[in-house]
């Protein structure tokens, strides 16, 4: 019997008045509340219907207990006044105390009532109630004693429906990291994990039968003598009692029968007999053990094993099984809602209860007397309410809570080949979900993106004021997502410190964990990608046949007919190695807006969007917050017919961006980003990830190699401080979005969004790849509003100074044990003449005798690897006019090391080292 479920009305075979305070117990099967008005313990009574002798304050003694509330078995139960004693309990339960046959309240305490006798009208009502109870009780006694022969021939027997199968109660679903061992969270309303019979040791089953129902293997599911005794006691005005077998207890759960009424007891008895006649005993016992409440918020034997002993049920021994079986009688009637039979609460009572089970085990030949003598009460782990083992649901209020949202989104929208939901009963629980999240990578993502590190750019970052928003509510935050190329596995996901509050890394639909339980979009992870989106513009250009060696005009600013405003490069810099003419890979390394705007206009904004979609970007938002789904295949008809797409004006999520960059890392092989690796129910594997990366249509591996070449220059030339440690090569792109649209001075107006996206190369020597590489996207911005300026220290935030540092720190750590790989050499595919300006004409050589085996090139016409004239010269002098980047002093001289006036910019083969301010 079970009367300690904190989520159900309290009940019991016998109740003890005046037990110590604490949360009231209950019963997951339903049942009647206690009669003492407190969190009293309950127990099994033997015989009699005597009342409890009230102990005075501080008194101690031995009290014979009968029909009134009594203690549990022969256990020691302290009374409310502080008295201690030993109570012999009669097989009685709780007095109705009113005319109704369903107890609506907790009734009396079992002590003599105070005050005058009831009035005449009240006495008459009570007399009629007693008469009615006697008549109903006599009828119930007759029906119950008659047994299956009489009951089976009645309409009532036929009217009680038998379920098609033994239904199971709601249980928890547990989510694990990719190691399939470390729990990430648990979802559900009850801490229950249903397990099959073969995972419940025989010793545990025997202990429960010996404790709760010794006739379980021989009875018809009901106890006729117990029913007769209870019916007679109830009929004659004694305390109403349950007299339930294991099968009856489970029958009550199956039919969700509530309250202690004669009609309910009849239905319970009939259903118990039908269950007994239909299913074998082991199946009924297994269902019961998966249902019963054991205290400590644990429903079922598996949850109880974890809650009390920190192990799986299949690892329990006989002593541990007996200790848990002892808990069923009163799992939550003690202090703080715990059981008196919990070894960490009342050790003496727990041991006494444990010892009382041994004779039954011996009597039923489950163990020998010699074995019984060796069994000792097992040590239990102490109860810690914050320990996830005791919670029906946990993990949502952690950073990985946002992973849980994405897992639910993925599974609830997963369909089979016919388009039917694969997991329609996900909310009912009972699943074991293994995610793709790597525990170490996730820990590092939380470490670097949370701003807890002292040298984190987040530590000194501040957002500008927003009218009506207190400064402390508009914090500067970061998001970080890592995706494994070729597989699409999300290895780390950080969208904020609390999954119940915010997610700035993505958007999702979660109808199970979201507060409104609706299948609506949530999350705040869409941000203007700025120049980091140029990775897709460059990819689209390569797919359209444009070479990274094509030449583009790159003035500081450019006005376009019919368009408001003008396009400007970062800080007004438009100087490449050949004046205002840049090769496309140079424009990429220096993050120049004008060439990329012209490039987008030439190929069309739709081509950029199509490539972004094919790489893995699912959604994009315009300035008004309108969302466009890019998922449908085929041409995109310019939903955003605006060349600003090519320079990153329209918003994307951090997750989508990481997925797209992972496709580039896989040399154009796209795999869908996902969070779920495997799904189990019990021991059955229901789902396993299957990824088949497909090459982007029209985008070859050679094109991907050319793009990687250009993106490597972002680190090696433009931002050398962001290169990874230990000479590990990477390809990356920064992005910075201005806080004030059309501002002419970024230093004064500041920047509101900043990005760093990048990847390391996979191992190209193995097929299939054993090392897939890693792609990571990092964003920084304000929690509220995406247009306020952000500073880091006293300087405006840039992609390199904010998220760039987070990206580098994180990647340095998580790639430590990964193989050092290199990218394939560039192939320089495509048409060099597809730029918007002609290639500069090479001047005649200054020294006709200059020549070496293999040839010497003349800047800016040097290709990578060609020898340039002269050795290292003296450092070049700064240019006379502002805005011209000093040269590196490595050439343009007479070939004898005297070329010190290289102020016009570096040779194309060695781009200038620009400041970190890149958009």
From TrEMBL:
Record's catalysed reaction(s): Preferential cleavage: (Ac)2-L-Lys-D-Ala-|-D-Ala. Also transpeptidation of peptidyl-alanyl moieties that are N-acyl substituents of D-alanine; [GlcNAc-(1->4)-Mur2Ac(oyl-L-Ala-gamma-D-Glu-L-Lys-D-Ala-D-Ala)](n)-di-trans,octa-cis-undecaprenyl diphosphate + beta-D-GlcNAc-(1->4)-Mur2Ac(oyl-L-Ala-gamma-D-Glu-L-Lys-D-Ala-D-Ala)-di-trans,octa-cis-undecaprenyl diphosphate = [GlcNAc-(1->4)-Mur2Ac(oyl-L-Ala-gamma-D-Glu-L-Lys-D-Ala-D-Ala)](n+1)-di-trans,octa-cis-undecaprenyl diphosphate + di-trans,octa-cis-undecaprenyl diphosphate + H(+)
Keyword tags: Carboxypeptidase, Glycosyltransferase, Hydrolase, Membrane, Multifunctional enzyme, Protease, Transferase, Transmembrane, Transmembrane helix
Pfam families (alphabetical): Transgly, Transpeptidase
Membrane-spanning residues: 135-157
Compositionally skewed regions (Low complexity) per UniProt: 30-50, 61-73, 106-124
Segments for region (Disordered): 1-73, 100-126, 825-919
Gly residues: bias regions: 19-29, 51-60, 886-907
Domain of life assignment: Bacteria
Single GO MF annotation: serine-type D-Ala-D-Ala carboxypeptidase activity
UniProt-listed GO biological process terms: peptidoglycan biosynthetic process; proteolysis
Comp. bias (Basic and acidic residues): 825-834
InterPro entries assigned to the protein according to its UniProt record, in alphabetical order: Beta-lactam/transpept-like, Glyco_trans_51, Glycosyltr_51/Transpeptidase, Lysozyme-like_dom_sf, PBP_transglycosylase, PCN-bd_Tpept
Domain Glycosyl transferase family residues, every copy: 182-353
GO cellular component entries: outer membrane-bounded periplasmic space
Span of domain Penicillin-binding protein transpeptidase: 481-760
Full protein name: Bifunctional penicillin-binding protein 1A/1B
Gene transcribed to yield this protein: ponA1
């Amino acid at each position: 019997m079970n009367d300690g479920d904190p989520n159900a009305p309290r009940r019991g075979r016998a109740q003890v008045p005046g037990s110590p305070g604490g949360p009231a117990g209950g019963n997951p099967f339903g049942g009647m509340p206690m009669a003492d008005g407190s969190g009293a313990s309950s127990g099994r009574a033997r015989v009699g219907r005597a009342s409890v002798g009230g102990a005075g304050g501080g008194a101690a003694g031995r009290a014979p207990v009968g029909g009134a509330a009594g203690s549990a078995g022969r256990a020691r139960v302290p009374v409310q006044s502080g008295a201690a004693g030993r109570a012999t309990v009669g097989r009685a339960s709780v007095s109705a105390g009113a005319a109704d046959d369903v107890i609506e309240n907790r009734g009396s305490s079992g002590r003599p009532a105070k005050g005058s006798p009831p009035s005449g009208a009240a006495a008459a009502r009570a007399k009629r109630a007693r008469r009615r109870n006697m008549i109903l009780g006599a009828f119930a006694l007759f029906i119950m004693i008659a047994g299956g022969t009489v009951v089976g021939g009645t309409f009532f027997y036929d009217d009680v429906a038998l379920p098609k199968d033994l239904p199971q109660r709601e249980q928890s679903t547990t989510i694990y990291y990719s190691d399939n061992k470390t729990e990430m969270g648990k979802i559900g309303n009850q801490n229950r994990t249903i397990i099959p019979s073969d995972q419940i040791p025989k010793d545990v089953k025997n202990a429960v039968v010996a404790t709760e129902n010794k006739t379980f293997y021989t009875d018809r599911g009901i106890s006729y003598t117990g029913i007769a005794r209870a019916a007679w006691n109830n009929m004659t005005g004694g305390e109403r009692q349950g007299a339930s077998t294991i099968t009856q207890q489970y029958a009550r759960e199956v039919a969700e029968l509530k309250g202690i009424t004669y009609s309910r007891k009849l239905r319970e008895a009939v259903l118990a007999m039908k269950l007994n006649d239909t299913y074998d005993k082991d199946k009924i016992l297994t269902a019961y053990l998966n249902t019963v409440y054991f205290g400590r918020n644990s429903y079922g034997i598996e949850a109880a094993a974890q809650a009390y002993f920190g192990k799986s049920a299949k690892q329990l021994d006989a002593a541990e099984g007996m200790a848990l079986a002892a808990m069923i009688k009163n799992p939550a009637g003690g202090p703080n809602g715990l059981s008196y039979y919990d070894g960490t609460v009342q050790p003496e009572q727990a041991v006494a209860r444990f010892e009382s089970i041994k004779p039954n085990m011996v009597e039923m030949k489950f163990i020998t007397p010699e074995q019984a003598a060796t069994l000792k009460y097992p040590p239990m782990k102490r109860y810690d309410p914050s320990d996830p083992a005791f919670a029906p649901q946990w993990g949502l209020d952690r950073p990985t809570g946002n992973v849980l949202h994405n897992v639910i989104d993925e599974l609830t929208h997963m369909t089979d080949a016919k388009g039917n939901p694969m997991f329609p009963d996900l909310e009912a629980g009972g699943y074991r979900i293994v995610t793709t999240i790597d525990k170490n990578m996730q820990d590092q993502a939380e470490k670097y993106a949370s701003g807890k590190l002292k040298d984190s750019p987040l530590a000194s970052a501040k957002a500008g004021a927003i009218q009506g928003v207190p400064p402390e509510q508009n914090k500067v935050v970061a998001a970080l997502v890592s995706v494994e190329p070729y597989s699409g596995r999300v290895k780390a996901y950080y969208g904020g410190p609390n999954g119940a509050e915010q997610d700035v890394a993505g958007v999702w639909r979660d109808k199970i964990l979201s507060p409104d339980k609706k299948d609506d979009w949530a999350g705040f992870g869409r941000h203007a990608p700025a120049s980091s989106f140029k990775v897709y513009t460059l990819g689209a250009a390569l797919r359209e046949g444009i070479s990274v060696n094509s030449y583009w005009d790159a003035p500081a600013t450019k006005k376009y007919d019919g368009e408001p405003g003008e396009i400007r490069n970062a800080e007004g810099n438009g100087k490449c190695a050949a004046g205002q003419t840049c090769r496309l890979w140079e424009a990429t390394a220096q993050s120049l807006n004008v060439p990329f705007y012209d490039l987008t206009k030439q190929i069309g904004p739709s081509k950029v969007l199509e490539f972004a979609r094919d790489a893995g970007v699912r959604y994009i938002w315009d300035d008004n917050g309108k969302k466009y789904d890019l998922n449908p295949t085929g041409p995109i008809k310019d939903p955003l017919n605006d060349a600003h797409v090519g320079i990153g004006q329209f918003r994307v999520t951090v997750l989508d961006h990481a997925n797209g960059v992972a496709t580039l890392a896989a040399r154009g092989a796209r795999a869908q980003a996902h969070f779920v690796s495997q799904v189990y129910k019990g021991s059955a594997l229901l789902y396993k990830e299957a990824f088949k990366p497909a090459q982007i249509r029209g985008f070859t591996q050679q094109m991907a190699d050319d793009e990687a070449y250009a993106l490597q220059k972002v680190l090696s030339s433009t931002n050398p401080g962001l290169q990874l440690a230990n000479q590990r090569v990477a390809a990356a792109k920064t992005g910075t979005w201005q806080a004030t649209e059309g501002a002419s001075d970024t230093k004064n107006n500041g920047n509101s969004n900043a990005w760093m996206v990048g990847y390391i190369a996979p191992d190209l020597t193995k097929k299939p790849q054993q090392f897939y590489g890693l792609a990571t996207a990092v964003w920084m911005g304000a929690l509220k509003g995406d247009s306020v300026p952000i500073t880091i220290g006293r300087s405006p935030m840039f992609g390199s100074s904010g998220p760039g540092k987070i990206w580098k720190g994180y990647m340095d750590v998580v790639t430590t044990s990964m193989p050092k790989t290199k990218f394939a050499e560039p192939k320089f595919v495509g048409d060099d003449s597809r730029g918007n300006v002609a290639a500069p004409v090479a001047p005649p050589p200054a020294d006709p005798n200059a020549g070496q085996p293999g040839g010497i090139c003349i800047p800016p016409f040097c290709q990578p690897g060609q020898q340039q004239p002269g050795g290292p010269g003296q450092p070049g002098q700064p240019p006379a006019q502002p805005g011209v980047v000093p040269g590196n002093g490595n050439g343009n001289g007479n070939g004898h090391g005297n070329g010190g006036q290289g102020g016009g910019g570096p040779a194309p083969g060695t781009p200038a080292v620009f400041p970190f301010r890149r958009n």
